[in-house]
């Protein structure tokens, strides 16, 4: 594999800095660690970044991360401290500092307000998350690699799965395979839901042994360079019964319809409706108990949401899942999920394994 493109963190910080004045801010104190990684490449578990509308930006972390910060963020001034003495060094000349209000605990906000005075600390919107929704080329490349490893893992699962193994053994096998193939880690604990457990959308690897006739939903993804893959496929041990066989067909049609609806400028809720209408027409509207999809990036679930109440509009270079499902208590269920990148006139699936039911 050729060398992946490097992330241009400076360009991301510049885009954020450009947006601060219109948000009424002189600076934004980034405390969300995923946002921090997005803007700097820093992967430590403690740190903050002060992004200024004009002038330099500063990374603040503590002594545990001195060397790591130097290696990962060589291009920014760094303050190493456990206290709040960084304020005096960085805040001078700043009147309004935005806090990530959706992330900062109330008590922390209160103490920051006191410490930042006379600068005013104000709640800021999800400025970094909005930038993160549109992927740059290096991010799409990382998502592609994560999805390629996930596809390889799925092929290995299909070759390995058989009656008698438990759901959790399948999940462990998938996790091990991903890491052996070069993933950072699984992006999330896989869902392996066989037989009646298929009625639970987020069923976690259980102790139930798979049996002949099981329809099995497998939802998994590798994490590569911090970026998450997210894919769901179906496998059955022998042919599923007629009822679940019909459920699989409806889900497949709904998923294809929703993927076909994805394009730049399309309302996210219209993509949801494309899947939901088909499932409702088949009489299973009540059994589709979640939204059709979500954005994916450094976080498994990020903007935008694709659901009935979403007010997001899809834009080119967003990476979103399309994952309708039907869940029938005691009988089982089915979901098919792709991760796609929105293009001007449609989308491109990064998850490429065959979507039709695999029968083993
Ligand atoms: Zn998933
Ligand atoms: Zn998902």
Describe the structure.
The chain has 360 residues and is α+β, with helices and mostly antiparallel strands. It folds into 2 domains: 9-131, Creatine Amidinohydrolase, Chain A, domain 1; 137-359, Creatine Amidinohydrolase (Alpha-Beta Complex). It contains 10 helices and 20 strands. The strands form 6 sheets. It has a 6-stranded mixed β-sheet with strand order 4-3-2-1-5-6, with helices on both faces. Helix 7 (137-160) crosses helix 8 and helix 9 packs antiparallel against helix 10. The longest helix has 24 residues, at 137-160. The radius of gyration is 23 Å and the shape is elongated. Bound molecules: zinc ion (2 copies). One zinc ion (ZN) is lined by residues 230, 294, 321, 323, 337.
* CATH architecture descriptor name of the largest domain: Alpha-Beta Complex
The quaternary organization reads as single chain
- Report the end-to-end length measured between terminal Cα atoms: 32 Å
Bound molecule kinds, no repeats: zinc ion
Number of helices: 10
Catalogue the unreliable spans: none
The 3D shape can be described as elongated
Beta content: 15-25%
Radius of gyration using CA atoms only: 23 Å
Key phrases:
360 residues; alpha+beta; Creatine Amidinohydrolase, Chain A, domain 1; Creatine Amidinohydrolase; six-stranded mixed sheet; four-stranded mixed sheet; binds zinc ion
């Amino acid at each position: 594999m050729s060398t992946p493109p490097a992330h241009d963190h400076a360009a991301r910080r510049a885009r954020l800095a450009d947006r601060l004045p219109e948000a009424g801010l002189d600076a934004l104190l980034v405390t969300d660690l995923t946002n921090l990684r997005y803007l700097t490449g820093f992967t430590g578990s403690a740190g903050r970044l002060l992004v200024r509308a004009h002038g330099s930006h500063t990374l603040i972390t503590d002594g545990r991360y001195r060397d790591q910060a130097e290696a990962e963020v060589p291009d920014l001034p760094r303050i190493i401290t456990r206290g709040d003495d960084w304020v005096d060094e960085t805040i001078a000349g700043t009147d309004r500092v935005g806090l990530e209000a959706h992330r900062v605990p109330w008590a922390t906000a209160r103490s920051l307000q006191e410490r930042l005075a006379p600068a005013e600390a104000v709640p800021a919107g999800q400025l970094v998350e909005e930038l993160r929704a549109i992927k740059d080329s290096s991010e799409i490349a990382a998502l592609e690699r994560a999805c390629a490893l996930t596809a390889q893992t799925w092929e290995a699962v299909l070759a390995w799965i058989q009656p008698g193994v438990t759901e959790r053994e399948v999940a462990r096998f998938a996790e091990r395979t991903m890491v052996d193939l070069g993933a950072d880690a699984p992006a999330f604990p896989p869902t392996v839901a066989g037989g009646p457990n298929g009625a639970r959308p987020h069923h976690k690897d259980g102790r139930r042994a798979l049996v002949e006739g099981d329809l099995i939903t497998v939802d998994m993804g590798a994490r590569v360079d911090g970026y998450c893959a997210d894919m769901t496929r179906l496998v059955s041990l022998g042919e599923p019964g007629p009822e679940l066989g019909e459920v699989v067909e409806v889900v497949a049609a709904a998923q294809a319809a929703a993927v076909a609806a994805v394009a730049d400028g399309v309302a996210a809720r219209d993509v949801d409706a494309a899947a939901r209408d088909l499932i409702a027409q088949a009489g299973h509207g009540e059994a589709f108990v979640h939204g059709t999809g979500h954005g994916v990036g450094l976080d498994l679930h990020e903007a935008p949401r694709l659901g009935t109440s979403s007010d997001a509009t899809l834009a080119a270079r967003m990476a979103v899942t399309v994952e309708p499902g039907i869940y029938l208590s005691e009988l089982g269920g089915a979901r098919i999920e792709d991760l796609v990148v929105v293009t001007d006139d449609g989308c491109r699936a990064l998850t490429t394994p065959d979507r039709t039911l695999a029968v083993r």
